[in-house]
Amino acid sequence: MFGLRSNLRVGLDLGSHSIKLAVVEKVGPRFRLVKWKCSEIYTGGDAYDPEGPKKSVAVPQLMRVMGEIGIAPKKIKRLASCIGGAQVAAKEISSIMMTEAEMASSLLLEARKHIPLDGSETIIDYQILGDDPTESDKVRVLLVATTRKHYETHQDLLREIELKPGIIDIESLAVLNSYLIHSQMPEEGAAIFLQIGARKTNLSVIGRKDMFFTRDLPVAGQFFTDELRRKYGLDYQEAEQVKREQGMNPDIEKKGDTAEDALAVTEKSSMDKLGDEINRSLRFYVKDTGQTVFTHLVLTGGGVMLPGLDEYLSNKFNLPIELYNPFNQLDSRVPIEADNPYQMAPAIGLAIRGDL
Ligand SMILES: Nc1ncnc2c1ncn2[C@@H]1O[C@H](COP(=O)(O)OP(=O)(O)O)[C@@H](O)[C@H]1O
Ligand SMILES: [Mg+2]
User: Fold this and answer.
1) 346 lines ligand 1 (CB under 6 A)
2) How far apart are CA 202 and CA 171, in angstroms?
3) Which bound ligand lies closest to the C-alpha atom of 172?
4) Which residues of the chain have pLDDT under 50?
5) What local confidence, expressed as pLDDT, does residue 65 receive?
6) 306 CA: nearest ligand 1 atom
7) Residue 107 has what pLDDT?
8) Strands 213-217 and 201-206
9) 184-323: which CATH architecture?
10) 243 lines ligand 1 (CB under 6 A)
11) Atom 6, ligand 1: which residue's CA is nearest?
12) Nearest to 356 by CA among 41, 23, 100, 57
């Protein structure tokens, strides 16, 4: 194993389906990719755990990935990782400018008002997004909150393999950070980001003037796989392969009686369910903010490669699509060959995190 030079930055995204690791180096104003790895957590049979990997599964996998990429966890000086899911919430508010200390205490009160989390102890963080374009004495502040338990569970997992936790971001912001290295937010109106993972799709709305919004939707890659399993009587690996090669209307025979046959009415397709979820969130956003102009859909995350999904979303929302490949934001000495580059968006965003 080699010792990491101290200017290297490591981004770690421990997903429900795979572990993503990116190592970058800052060269002048640009970032160079040094190494990366995306490794499936469950490779054998039906082992996929819909609740997400348990610590007993995640820890050895994380050690394996570190070993394969040739990094000794102890030697990593700059690590950024992320948390996401239902235990994390973010909300933009407008606030008068205050000192750091005033901001911290007053925002804790604000956060309790705005951010719905369960009753357990909440920790908050905030980031100033810029001036409020509507009120000159105010600034745009992004509040981020999570439960102490969720935060500490994540830290424990990192410590288990002797990683110093370093910076912990929220997943949706990690994706946006990678995007904003070289791409711009729309000047007028807002872009809709969809990061389609295995268990959830993260939707974020962002524009130069429009209110930031982010929410997790409970339909993503795993739902498409499960639909194929039910409809065609396939096992997990078969369904995954069919999904990747042929999409949701494959030219294959059903295997025996399937779970779908037992249902009297055919269920809505997973694509329609995803479309409905997106629609519901956007309607909420429009109602909440009064802002209605959406410029385009930015698609990323592993699930985005589902054949036909981009076309479906573009038609449903009548918006142009940008498929966001995070590797394009980085320099590299060797050509980057990735089966699915879209899975790497959060890890790359974490690795380039500036203020480590
Ligand atoms: N080529 C592909 N076509 C369709 N779906 C894919 C493809 N590659 C990966 N996926 C799906 O992407 C999901 C994993 O995406 P990822 O962003 O890594 O999720 P997570 O962050 O939850 O681990 C899985 O549901 C997987 O089936
Ligand atoms: Mg993910």
Assistant:
1) no
2) 8
3) 2
4) 1-3, 46, 356
5) 94
6) 4
7) 74
8) antiparallel
9) 2-Layer Sandwich (3.30)
10) yes
11) 303
12) 23
Say what the pTM is.
0.91
Count of CA atoms in the C-beta half-sphere (13 A) of 306: 32
Site to substitute for ligand 1 among 19, 37, 249, 340, most atoms within 8 A of C-beta:
340
Query: CA-to-CA distance for 36 and 55, rounded, in angstroms?
Result: 23
The CATH 3.30.420.40 portion of the chain extends over 1-87+148-183+325-356, 184-323
pLDDT at position 252 is 92
Contacts of 340 (CB under 8 A, 6+ apart): 38, 302, 305
Residue nearest atom 11 in ligand 1 by C-alpha distance:
303
Q: At 126, phi and psi to the nearest 5? A: -145, 160
Pairing of strands 331-332, 30-40: parallel
pLDDT at 1: 40
**CA 243 to ligand 1: nearest atom:** 4
Our answer on whether the CB atom of 233 is closer than 6 Å to any ligand 1 atom is no
Q: Is 100 helix (H, G, I), strand (E, B) or coil?
A: helix
CA of 301 to the centre of ligand 2 (A): 7
State the Cα angle at 147 between 145 and 151, rounded to 5°: 95
- Domain 1-87+148-183+325-356 superfamily per CATH: ATPase, nucleotide binding domain (3.30.420.40)
Tell me if 18 CB under 6 Å of ligand 1. Answer: yes
Return phi, psi of residue 23, to 5°. -120, 120
Distance, in Å, from the CA atom of 161 to the CA atom of 73, rounded to the nearest integer, reads 7
Tokens of residue 256, six digits? 């025996």
Is any ligand 1 atom within 6 A of the Cβ of residue 39? no
Length of the chain: 356
Quick one: pLDDT at residue 311? 97
Identify which of 13, 18, 312 to mutate to test ligand 1's pocket (most ligand atoms within 8 A of the CB).
Answer: 18
**Helical segments of the chain, H only:** 55-69, 100-114, 148-160, 171-179, 221-232, 236-246, 270-289, 309-317, 345-351
16 in contact with ligand 1, CB cutoff 6 A: yes
Q: Which helix (H) or strand (E) holds 138?
A: strand 138-147
Instruction: Give pLDDT, residue 160.
Output: 92
